[in-house]
């Protein structure tokens, strides 16, 4: 081949090209983004709308349903999920994976604009946003050491703007702090004396705090703008605000109200390691890099610490980049270990340090070239892509081994170094290219198959493909070039390594003896192989199924839910009791963060009756208990806390697609769905492996409904809106204006004293002013009814839905779902009500279906490539008999290691389809060569088997040993690659052992069959 000849004739030019590629590779690697997993581009759009003061039922009927109907007909929409909470609506649209989200967002905005005018008057304009379910804060940063108002001020004015200016930062939110405001607390008795209402006070304050333009006046050649100043400069000016009474008299605001500067009512509480704090959550941009953003924030923190008020401390609470760094470091270590094992195998077989060095040099060159290709195709450095490199380490040297061995064969025949390199490499190059192609083509279906499995593992497939292409290019250029310069003398096999030669000769003799027996008893060989395959298939039900192994990063999540309507103080008391339990194991806790009544996003936040913990445990080597052990221990202890629903779960670092178990109940009536959900929770809680089963419903939030008698109100000349406006103003307070002081802008809130609106009787006695100035009590035109209303109403595809979900402990997802479906099939559902499976179970089954299709296409492509290589349909068909044998190793490997069949394991099976045929290709190809030279069939098979066993063992062992570090799941984040590596190791080894005996037998059977057909014809 011309490429090989050129590389041998021009070693300086090849060397310069290699150096340029290495330099480019180093630059590319430094500029590659680093993250834990590849970004999953799920096209999801959200329509968020607020409707202050409305109950969930009103929100659903007046806001959610119209929006649902408007977006349901948009092209590409697969699922519509909707949530209606008090005062807010959220409609989530999930599009098919091939949808262009930018175009879809335009269509959503157009559809929403068409029904905007039909929404109720109090509803704000809907916001249309893109949504990333994987978007989690990169870091949590805590401020401590001062009162909350000071910490909030420092966070808002000094730190938040600085953080948001950092490259890659999307947004920074603040939790746990309190702001200041100016409160105008009305004296209702004084207001009644003067015949004033809260609305009149509001209007007076608004009109008094204004600066207006007075036009323009000329002065010489200039035009001066006249501005009439009227904004408040101090609290005293607010107190002196003039208010006109119905009797046309003027009084001061402080005659009917108390004006004070105070903290806003606390709605949330944040504790860091048990200390009250203000916490900032940093989100990265969609295309941002987690590690880079973390570095920028840490750098900004160093700058801001110098200017913090005395006593105020700024510390990192959680940093997700730490786990990413450790995970990448672990994969790199596994990669280096795999490369070392592969080099040792080569040294053992080749018995030549120079020959080993020639092949070993191709590994770093191929790896660095892969980084260059990754950079230009937009891939990132993550656990999966680096795992792909680690998986490819052993396969990278396969091409180099075959080419070098052929060159060595020519050297042993007496050829010069240059001639041996040229002739040996050129002769074997077509077979090497074909062998590598069979491995590459299996990845094509993974790239083109849709679904989450393709989204996740396409980067891995692309990385392995890049590595194999780079190693093939290195084998065809660098190996011949280096061989022509370095293979001056070859080892005679004496000395310390002679024992290995004798061992290998013994293995070859045993193999040839086994092969003779198999060829004499061909039917028995086929039958035994069939029985072994069938026996292994019988183990499949005992394997279980799983989605994607969760990486254990030592994090635990605790959720506390007290009865709906519980205030912040009561929920905090429960949190204190949970803290007491955790303090007993403080030696295993590195840091903890709890948010009480805060958090949430897009208006669907937490309420005062909820609290959420994040606990980071110390590194695993510093504690005796695993993360799951700690979780189960705490979970059993917190169940003794009365008055709250508390769940403890392991927070994995996997690619989350929802809860593992998710049962979606659909039907027309929310109350009936709640009852069914309670039954389902009871039924599935007894299933082994189900952990913390619960439903999306609760007992309902207690509410006091004010029912306005519209006719009675009309008799006093008032509308429904006028009555509720005054009631809302007195109960909630209203922002009248803003007061600027010291660079801050404070709200001026007009409200009724808390002690005058605490009880039902006081609310009934609230004074309502009629248009004539008459003061009447609220109970004159309205009645109060105490009811329990749902906190959240959920809909799916325009139908009411309640979701029952749970976690998993100690059992695989497939087995648990089988038991759950058996239980559900025995339940009787009312007419019009049904259930469906969602969450990880649904995604798992869809992914398995997609990958099964990809496997079928991969097998077809492998056959097609071999048919082109052999220019024959029969021999590739014979070689394909090596594929069923890999099933034995796959199933036994998973069974022995106790791993379920997961998405990574299935990817390993697809990769095996392209790897296991290589041994059969080498064997059948050499048998054909010997037969063409006139060797009798039986002798040709024995000679080919003995001759090809050495390179088959070398390539198989380098691949297997290169993956052993990954198969052990060592280090952080190793769980994702472990099933894949186990499947390839066991599948390849068993397939190799059986193929070496089975394929010659199948070859003879089909050879005899073809002879009979030819004789008949």
Automatic annotation (TrEMBL):
UniProt entry keywords in alphabetical sequence:
Membrane, Transmembrane, Transmembrane helix
Please name the SUPFAM superfamilies in this protein's record: Multidrug efflux transporter AcrB pore domain, PN1, PN2, PC1 and PC2 subdomains, Multidrug efflux transporter AcrB TolC docking domain, DN and DC subdomains, Multidrug efflux transporter AcrB transmembrane domain
Q: Which InterPro entries match?
A: AcrB_DN_DC_subdom (IPR027463), Acrflvin-R (IPR001036)
State which residue ranges cross the membrane. 12-29, 331-350, 357-377, 383-408, 428-448, 460-482, 526-548, 851-870, 877-899, 905-928, 949-968, 980-1006
Gene Ontology MF annotations: xenobiotic transmembrane transporter activity
Q: Which domain of life is it from?
A: Bacteria
Asked if the keyword NAD belongs to this entry, the reply reads: no
A Pfam family in this protein? ACR_tran
GO-annotated cellular components: plasma membrane
Q: What is this protein called?
A: Hydrophobic/amphiphilic exporter-1, HAE1 family
Q: Tell me the organism.
A: Tenuibacillus multivorans
